[in-house]
Amino acid sequence: MTVLVTGGSGLVGRAVIDALRAAGRTVRALVRRSSRHLVEGPGVEIAEGDVTDAEVWRRASAGISGIVHAAAVIAQRGTRADFHAVNVGGTLLALETARAAGVRLVHVSSVAAYGRSGAYAAGAGRVDEDFAFGRIWEHDFYARSKREAEAAVWAGVERGVDAVVLRPNVIYGEGDRLFSPRVLAAIRLRVAPQVGDGTNHLSCVYAGNVARAVLLALATPGARGRAYNTTDDGPERFTQRTFVDAFADAAGVRVLRVPLPYGVARVAVDLWARWLMLRHPGAYPGVGGAAVRFLAEENPFVAERARRELGWEPVTSPREAVTRTVRWLVANEKPGA
Question: Residue 111 phi/psi, 5° resolution?
């Protein structure tokens, strides 16, 4: 049976394709022509096209047994229309395709749908799937589009579509072009800021562990119409200190920790965010606070429902995940980078 995967050339999509292939499933990857070389391989069929094209969806859906919708615009640049076209428009077409084919849709959403600041303000262990959605900054087009896409999913469920929503937080892993390269670049400077005592658990999860949740969501009958946070790497999840240590060890460098009080870190990052907004108007207010909260505060997201109802447990330890990530980054970085 063939599973249709969108966003197959991206971080989560590639991990999902690998997991499906390892499970003996045939994959049909919906990708643009320029990205097909990233997903081609045994057990992978290619469907070329754009997720905003209804005809592409119609052709790609022949004979499928399920859909994993991981395609999304995630960078902080672009207009609201750019984000809406892919993140909302693509989801609407995924829902229509799932309805027409009579198959389950697993929609990869984000904890950004909760609102960037409200989740951390709630405190450690407070944000489960019933947490009330809060304010989203006007120019946080990504978070707005992910919330709107979820609203479309829940409306589809009410009309009878078999759909499941997964909400990861910051994702790292092989194929990451956004978060992990910046961490590695910072580690290579051999100086690492430490906000507070560094014992807080970070709000991040390995792409391969998210992929495991995707496969379980596809296969679990009772998951229909449910949302699941997939937001940590289990009992060995990273603290601020152990995350830095793991990247430093994998990169083969020693780092000097520079302690920073929370207030100092917040001012420094806010100044950086203001500079970023001047250069890139598409950036959103509050990014400075969000960055410091991520680094210095406890992961507020609870993934117990996924463990209880899906039987989700990480398949790769955090240390091994970082080793694989750094190995991939080094092998794929551009000369002179």
Answer: -65, -10
> Please, what is the angle between helix 207-219 and helix 11-22, to 10°?
60
For residue 307, count other CB atoms closer than 10 A to its CB. Answer: 15
Distance CA 196, CA 161 (A): 46
Mean pLDDT by 10 residues, the chain (337 residues): 94 97 96 92 94 97 97 82 95 98 98 87 87 90 96 98 97 93 90 88 97 98 98 96 96 92 74 57 51 82 97 97 97 72
- 254 lies in a domain? no
Place of tokens 């994998």: 250
Contacts of 260 by beta carbon, 8 Å cutoff, 6+ apart: 193, 194, 195, 268
pTM listed for this prediction: 0.92
CATH number of the domain within which 87 lies: 3.40.50.720
Residue 273 has a pLDDT of: 57
pLDDT of residue 108: 98
The range of the structural domain enclosing residue 222 comes to 2-169+205-232+299-315
What pLDDT was estimated at residue 285?
Answer: 45
Residue 180 makes CB contacts below 8 A (sequence gap 6+) with 172, 173, 325, 326, 329
What is the DSSP-derived secondary structure letter of residue 87?
Answer: I
For 220, the 3-state DSSP assignment is coil
Euclidean distance between the first and final Cα of the chain, in Å? 42
Split into its structural domains, the chain has a count of 1
The reply to whether 270 falls in a domain is no
Place of tokens 């969501």: 217
Does residue 64 form part of some domain? yes
To the nearest 10 degrees (0 to 180), the angle between helices 179-188 and 318-332 is: 80
Give the list of residues 6+ apart from residue 87 with CB closer than 8 angstroms, or none. Answer: 72, 73, 142, 145, 146, 148, 149
Bridging pattern class, strands 44-48 and 191-195: unpaired
